[in-house]
Amino acid sequence: MLPVRGRDGRATRAVRILGVRTAWTPVGDGEFFCPGCGGDRNYQRLTGRRRLTLLGVPVLPRGVTGPVVECAACRHHFGTEVLDHPTTRRFSAMLRDAVHTVALAVLAAGGTGARTALETAAATVRASGFADCTEDQLAALVEALAADTGRYFEQPCGAGLTIELHEALDPLAPHLAPAGREALLLQAARIALADGPYTPAERDALATVGAALTICADDVTRLLAAARTPS
C-alpha cells in the first residue's frame, strides 16, 4: 500500500522508509517504586544501541542510549533517578526506625524517670511498626546509650545526638511531605511534654530533630508551641 499523498505525504514516506531502532540489553535488575504503577515492582536496568533502519532493516549504528529502568509490570521506561525513591517496604522501615531514634533522643534528653514519658514514647514507637516495644525496653536502651559515651550523649545535645538523628532522618526527609515532617516533630514534642513542660535539654533535642527534618527554626518554634495546646 502506497503512503497517503498530500500536504504531509513526503514526511509520511520518510517515516516508512527510514527509522531508528533501539536494541536493549539488560545490565541489572531489582525492585523499585514504579511511578507508573504506583507501587513496588520488579525492574530491569537496560542500556541500548540505536541503529538507523532502512525499510525496517538495521543499516547504520547511531550510538548508545540509556541506561533506563523498565518496569516488569507496565513495561514503561523511566530515568534511573527513579531508583532513588525508596520502595514502599523500605520507606516504612525508614519511617519506623526514624520514630524509634527520635523517641530515644527525646527520652535521653529528658530522662526516663517519669513513667508517662516512657508510656507515650512506647505507644508512639509501637504505632510506627515496632509492635513489641515496651517502656522497659526503651528505658534500658536509653541507659545503655548513656553509658556508651563514645557513641551517644555526653551532653544534652552533643555531637553524638546530632549524628544519630541525622543518620536516621536525612535519608527519610526528602521523601516526606511537609505535613509528614511536621507530624514526626510533633510526635517527639508530645513525648517531651508527657511529663511536664519542655526542659532546656528537650528543647535542644527537638530543635535538632527539626533541623534534621529540614524544618526551619521558626516553624520548629511554632510546632513546639502548638504541641502544648490540647487538641
From TrEMBL:
Residue ranges occupied by any Co-chaperone DjlA N-terminal domain in the UniProt entry: 128-222
Gene3D superfamilies: TerB-like
Signal peptide per UniProt: none
Pfam (any one): TerB
InterPro entries to which the protein is assigned, alphabetical: DjlA_N, TerB-like
Protein name from the UniProt record: TerB family tellurite resistance protein
Species of the source: Streptomyces musisoli
